[in-house]
Every structure is written in C-alpha cells, then in structure tokens.
Amino acid sequence: MADEKRIKQEELNEEDEAIFKWAAFNISFAITAFGEEIRAEISRLRAAGIADSQIGGILNTDLQSGGRIFGSFRNSIKRGVVSGIMQGYRVGQDRVYGDSIKMRWVSVGSPNICPDCKKRVGKIESWRTWETLGLPASGFSVCKGYCYCQLIPTNYPIEDKVIIK
User: Into how many domains does the chain fold?
Assistant: First the structure.
C-alpha cells in the first residue's frame, strides 16, 4: 500500500510529461538527421571512388575531431537536452511565481549574446508579459535552443550579465 501511494505521488502531470516528450522528440529528430547525414556522406564518398576502408577512416577522423558530422550531432543532442532542461525550468518558475512578481532578463554564460537577447538584458516585466514576448530558449530568438538566458525575480540581487569562464 505504501509503494502504491509513493508511485502515485511520483507520477508526472500532463505538463511535465509534455516537456519530456518535447525533449525526446528533439533528440530523436537529431538522431534521425544524424543517420541521414552519415548515409549521405558515405554515398558522396563512394560516388567519388573512395574505398569503404578509407571511408571508415574519414568518419573516424570526423568523430575524433568533432568534425562537421559528429560535431553537429553532438551539438544537436546538447541542444535537445538543454532545451528540455530550460523548458522544465520555465514550467517550474511559472508554477512557483506565476505573475506574482516581476522578472529581470539575465544573460548567463557567454559574453557573446545574440542580438534578440541583447535587447532584453536587464529589462523587467511580469511573467505573463515575458510569455507573450518570448521566454528564454523558447525559440523566439536567433539563439533558439542554445539560449542560456534566465528570468530572475527582481528581488534577487544579480548582475544583468553573468559570464561563466
């Protein structure tokens, strides 16, 4: 009986489940695109007359160096994971704060901020207004799923730009 109660408490609600599905879809898409890219590259190399043994070496070099194919795949998986985390953070923030307090747009991570986010750094709005304008990592900006910006409650003392070195 205690285990049944614990399992019910651990069940995901629909919004949580949607975030996991969204992240899984993004990662699944990246895997599919990666498979297509590998097949296309092998076809191009074979059409150029390169032997399969050499093709294996070329692909291994790309893997070891984080080249065009494997580097892109790594970045796509990273983007899928980060986007899932950011969407989970967004839902949690909405549940905790809702529209009860004002939020400041803070850039986190790199000194290179995309032009869309740069315009928002330090700006203060309600949660609902930010939802309407576009939340960090929601896809509204040039940086899309690579966005590490955060909405921070204005009562929390923090710089508008937090650079991680």
Answer: 2
Domain co-membership, 64 together with 105: no
Q: Is 87 exposed, middle or buried (0-12, 13-18, 19+ CB in 10 A)?
A: buried
Amino acid letter, 121: V
Pair (24, 89) in one structural domain: yes
Q: Which segment of 14-18, 35-39, 149-153 scores lowest on mean pLDDT?
A: 14-18
Query: What DSSP character marks residue 152?
Result: E
DSSP SS3 for 106:
strand
Please check whether residues 112 and 80 belong to one and the same domain: no
Whether 28 and 85 share a structural domain: yes
> How far apart, in Å, are the Cα atoms of 118 and each of 27, 91, 111?
28, 23, 10
Domain residues for the domain of 26 are 1-97
Instruction: Give me the pLDDT at residue 161, please.
Output: 78
Among residues 72, 97, 122, the one where a domain terminates is 97
Read off the DSSP letter of residue 23. Answer: H
Single-letter amino acid code for the residue at 113:
I
Neighbours of 56 (CB within 10 A): 11
Q: What is the pLDDT of residues 21-59, one digit of tens each?
A: 878 888 899 899 999 999 999 999 999 999 999 999 999
Q: pLDDT (tens digit, 9 = 90+) per residue, 60-76?
A: 999 999 999 999 999 88
3-state SS class at 163: strand
